[in-house]
Each structure stands twice: as structure tokens, then as C-alpha cells.
Amino acid sequence: MSNFDVVSKFEDVVAEFYSAPYAVATDSCTHALELCLRYKNIKQASCPSNTYLSVPMTFVKLDLDWNFRKETWQDYYYITEQIIDAAVLWRKDSYIKGTLMCISFQFRKHLSLGRGGAILCDDPEAAMVLKMMSYDGRVPNVPWAEQDISMLGYHYYMTPETAELGLNKIVNAMKTPPKIWSNNDYPDLSKMKVFKDVK
């Protein structure tokens, strides 16, 4: 088994848990969101003012036209009509068809791997392109020097070590009730100095 076979196995187990046809493992949920925004060539986005810092910071990084919105949410929220920040969602069969759902395995999350994320989707082309984008534009399991790389990639892939940890911990995570997260778990980012110019 090659190093990245364990990543593929982890992706398959995660996809099955959420009932998504595909899962693309990444090094963080923030980078998963960034890849989705890049893949869809998004120019405008919004997020609740009560969320994690890295979400609006990613909008700034990508130079998007964006804004905060007041929203009461639980488990997930939409960034665009197709892109969902589901970083805190841990619920079987919860994939929403036709979307790119980004989940997190950061150390405070239910499946706590220290770091990591994934994109759930039902489009095989999207799954392949997002995989390549996460992996320096490379096709997995082929030495990069033997490839004629045709797309820009972002070095956001999940390492085999993280995926192996995930496989070791996921069965227990499936048996354990998760915390239910909501907007109340986050401060109002619109009041922070770093975002003072956002309308």
C-alpha cells in the first residue's frame, strides 16, 4: 500500500459516514473552503458575523467582495449557494446534495486529529479537480516529476500520518455523541478591529 492509499481509505470512510459520493481530504477546513472558492471562481461571498476568524480572513486573502451577516445557525451555514462551512458538523448521512461541504478535524472538533479537513461533494469532476488543486496540481500516486502538471495547486493535502490517525479514531467518534455547535459558540467578528472596514 502506497503512502497515499491510506488517505484515499480515510476519504472513503468519511464519505460513507456523511453519505457523500466523494470526500477530498485537506490539511485544514479553512484551506478546504479556499479551494472551493477558487474552484468555483467565486467573486462574492458572505458569512455570519459569529464564526471562526479564518473564514472572513480567507475572503480577504482572495480579494472577494464580501460581507458579514447576522444569522442564527447550527452545525453549518452557507457561504454561497453551493459552498457550505460545515466545520463543526458531525452527523451521519448529513451531506446536502449538490453542494461542496467543508468539514474540520481540528483538535477541538469531534473527530480530533489536531489538524485536517475535507470537502464532501457529489460531482466526480469536482472531486478530481479539487484533489489535484490540494496536491500541487498533481495526480495522486504518480511521481510528480513524471507528470506534465497542467493546473496550479496549493499544497493543502492531508498527510498520510493524519489520515492514519483519522482511521484509528473514527470508529470511536462514530459511537460518541457530538457537541452541537452554533453561532453562540463564537464572538461577533464584525466588532474586531481587523474587520472594522467591512460593511
Question: Ranges with pLDDT <50 over ≥5 residues?
Answer: none
| Count of discrete domains | 1
How many β-strand runs? 7
Query: What's the SSE pattern?
Result: HEHEHEEEEEHH
Give the % helix.
25-40%
Distinct helical segment count: 5
* Fourth-level CATH superfamily: Type I PLP-dependent aspartate aminotransferase-like (Major domain)
Mean pLDDT: 95
Biggest sheet record:
5 strands, mixed
- Biggest sheet, strands in spatial order? 1-7-6-5-4
Keywords:
two-stranded parallel ribbon; 5 helices; Aspartate Aminotransferase, domain 2; 199 residues; globular; alpha/beta
Task: Outline the structure in words.
The chain has a five-stranded mixed β-sheet with strand order 1-7-6-5-4, sandwiched between helices. Helix 1 (5-18) packs parallel to helix 5 (160-175) and helix 2 crosses helix 4. The protein has five helices and seven strands. The protein has helices at 5-18, 29-39, 54-61, 124-134, 160-175, and strands spanning 22-26, 44-48, 65-69, 77-78, 83-85, 100-104, 117-121.
Summarize the structure.
This protein is α/β, with parallel strands linked by helices. It has five helices and seven strands.
Question: What is this structure's SSE topology?
Answer:
Elements: H1 5-18, E1 22-26, H2 29-39, E2 44-48, H3 54-61, E3 65-69, E4 77-78, E5 83-85, E6 100-104, E7 117-121, H4 124-134, H5 160-175
Parallel strand pairs: 2-3, 5-6
Antiparallel strand pairs: 1-7, 4-5, 6-7
Helix pairs in contact: 1-5, 2-4
